[in-house]
Amino acid sequence: MRTELFFISQPARRCKDVREVKSASRMNSWQWQRLRALVIDAAARFLNTQCRYEHQDPEMVRLFYQAVHATWPEVAAKYPNSWVLVWYLRIYLLKRVYRKRWSDKIAREKAASQLRRLRTKNTNQSSVRQVDTCASQARVSRRTRGRAITCDRPVSPPGSEITVSPAMQCSAVIAHQHSGSSSSPASAQSHSIVPIQSSHAVFRFLDSMTPSLVKLVPDFLSAGIYDQSHLEDFFTWPEKAQRNFLLKTFVGKMNALELGAMLIALNCRRHG
Q1: Which of 41, 76, 94, 235 has its CA 20 to 30 A from that of 255?
Q2: Could you give the CA distance from residue 118 to residue 116 in angstroms, rounded to a whole number?
């Protein structure tokens, strides 16, 4: 029995992928797996697997073919110019290059995404810190204004006198309605303007209202309620007399809510 060596010529059309190379080589599965293993091992030893076939060092390519032919001589004998080896090596290196480019692209996109998330996180933290700082500054500003208002409130030592503005220089005589007595015009005209003493007690009383009625301080002073003793006397009036006094003295200066708050406060003082 005679064994004849036959050649498998290179196809006229260039193979585009591994399946076409395998089909044109007419290798069985075992032979094809052996070829793949030889190419991968020799390429890792002699070639730069991150470059295409055309960009390889010619001397290293020669050593690659020499190593494969020494391990499997039938490849060079059966396939002219070892075309099956050349084509598979080209496709293998090209896939390696594309795979490397794809992995590099994924790595760059992942790094960029992490950088964007980090910048967003830092921006959010910076915004939170700015909001906290603004809130702290606002609280400090409110406390400072509160202390300034407290310090600016008119507190005069006992015995001191406060100059009354022309708008407040009205009659200092109070018509005590609860006693039923009334002063004559001549008596009111003959009564001299008494210097108004400390209004701190009046200010505290009106400021304790809800809402605050400190706007009525000048009117209280003009009506003659300008110190603690006059204010305590006003607290002892009957409820009807207090109501009539408020309606006549502060007409158009208090709404219903403010009048109600004043009457409630006076009632608490009267029964307290």
Answers
A1: 235
A2: 5
> Do residues 215 and 256 both lie within one domain?
yes
Instruction: Examine residue 159 and state whether it is found in any structural domain, yes or no.
Output: no
Return the amino acid letter for 19. Answer: R
Number of neighbouring beta carbons within 10 Å of residue 20 = 15
Closest by Cα among 23, 21, 5, 33 to 84: 21
Answer whether 206's CB lies under 8 Å from 153's CB. Answer: no
Of 100, 95, 88, 97, nearest in space to 42 by CA: 88
Whether residue 23 is found in the same domain as residue 83: yes
Structural domain containing residue 118: 1-145
137 shares a domain with 51: yes
φ, ψ for residue 39, nearest 5 deg: -65, -45
Give yes or no: residues 261 and 177 share one domain. yes
Instruction: Taking each helix axis as running N to C, give the angle between helix 29-46 and helix 58-71, from 0 to 180 degrees, rounded to the nearest 10.
Output: 140
Domain count, the chain: 2
Tracing tokens 């701190």 back to the chain, one arrives at 200
| pLDDT tens digit sequence for 31-74 | 899 999 999 999 999 988 888 888 889 999 999 999 988 888 88
Residue at 223: amino acid letter: A
Is 207 a member of any domain?
A: yes
Do residues 133 and 244 both lie within one domain?
no
Alpha carbons 64 and 88: distance in angstroms, whole number:
13
Asked if residue 237 lies in contact with residue 246, where contact means CB atoms within 8 angstroms, the answer is: no
The Cα–Cα gap between 84 and 24 comes to 8
Closest-CA residue to 94 (of 21, 31, 28)? 21
The type of residue at 125 is Q
Measured CA to CA, the distance from residue 18 to residue 23 in angstroms comes to: 9
Q: Which amino acid is at 249?
A: T
Q: Is the pTM here over 0.70, yes or no?
A: no
